[in-house]
Amino acid sequence: MAKVPSPAAEPLPASLADELAAFIEYLRVERQLSPHTRSNYRSHLDLMAAELVRLGLNDWARLEASQVRNLVTRMHKAGLVPSSLATKLSALRSFCDWQVRQGRLTANPARGIVTPKQGRPLPKNLDVDEMYQLLNITDEQDPLAVRDRAIMELMYSSGLRLAELVGLNLTDIKLDDRQLKVTGKGARERVLPMGRMAVEWLHKWLKVRPLLAGDEAEALFVSQRKRRLSARSVQERLDGWGNKQALNAHIHPHKLRHSFATHMLESSGDLRAVQELLGHVDLSTTQIYTHLDFQHLAKVYDNAHPRAKRDPATPEDE
Asked: 189 - beta bridge partners?
């Protein structure tokens, strides 16, 4: 793999260095950017300019889109990750915009140049054992503990978003039918099934809810202040339970939704059904979980298939 050149490896031609210095001064005087930000601009631009010199550039006025595109390709092949490459290209665009305003360039050759796509981070989820550990709350004498377990059981049972959970009203749940109605993004409603444990703990919560509800007649989940439970409160309570249940992971509402989606897909393999349950308009949004599912399948394969494991006598590199 090629090495990304160091800005200090070769001095830049004066024709390029002088204009960069003038741009950095513009950032100081006109834009009033901090020394740290100006230093970052300078570092990014010096590195890209050094590489452009290797591509034959000796005058910024002669910079062409093909050279910028070639630059991006070379730096990507040299091992620069997409996020770093995007930051450096952004600095070059700003510099070229300034060059256009100075009359040195007629158009910005860095505009329209795209960097390689950044890999979408995989959502983190709890495995089944961790979910059981989190949900092992047995204190039925504490109304808050009962409420919190009902919340977590419901989120994991039905894959709710946090906003959907806190927006639930008493009229939205039908325990006998094991169904609930939620209003998702774009005010789209969907009817979801509820699992047995979610129904059981909702029954328990509804018995103690009057102790906290006061005059709050609509909200399914209420706080000690006798009003609808806020999203922030749910986040804080789940984080607290993660610590109490000795889980080596930060627990937040979306992690329960991720866990629901992953476990459903691992068990059923039905991407369309999971899409409907999650309320995703675009299937591609749901497909992120297929990566997690593949990781699960690959692990099972490696552990189970007789030809999957490497022969101990086989060298790592042939």
From this structure: 183
Let me know: does 100 contact 106? Beta carbons within 8 Å. yes
Residue 225 DSSP symbol: T
Mean pLDDT, residues 7-33 taken together: 82
Quick check: 160 pLDDT over 90? Answer: no
Residues annotated as catalytic (active site), given as ranges: 161, 185, 254, 257, 280, 289
Q: Give Cβ neighbours of residue 279 (< 8 Å, ≥ 6 apart).
A: 161, 164, 182, 184, 185, 188, 190
Nearest in space to 162 (alpha carbons), one of 285, 226, 265, 256: 256
Side-chain-side CA neighbours of residue 233 (13 Å) = 15
Q: Read off the DSSP letter of residue 60.
A: G
Q: Position of tokens 């495995």?
A: 127
| pTM recorded for the entire structure | 0.53
- Angstrom distance (rounded) from CA 292 to CA 185: 24
pLDDT tens per residue across span 24-65? 999 999 888 888 888 989 999 998 888 888 888 888 988 888
Q: For 167-173, what is the mean pLDDT? A: 94
Contact between 38 and 83 under an 8 Å Cβ cutoff? The reply is: no
CA distances from 119 to 113, 263, 299 (A): 18, 23, 21
> Which residues, in sequence order, are bridge partners of residue 228?
222
Distance (Å, rounded) from C-alpha 272 to C-alpha 265? 10
How far from the centroid of its chain's Cα atoms is residue 249's Cα?
A: 16
**CA distances to 132, 214, 239, 241, 254 from 248, in Å:** 14, 37, 11, 12, 17
Q: What is the pLDDT of residues 220-277, one digit of tens each?
A: 999 999 999 999 999 999 999 988 888 877 888 878 888 887 777 666 655 666 666 6
Q: Phi, psi at residue 214, to the nearest 5°?
A: 60, -125
**2 secondary structure, DSSP code:** P
Task: Write down the mean pLDDT value for the chain.
Answer: 80
**How many Cα neighbours within 13 Å face the side chain of 226?**
6
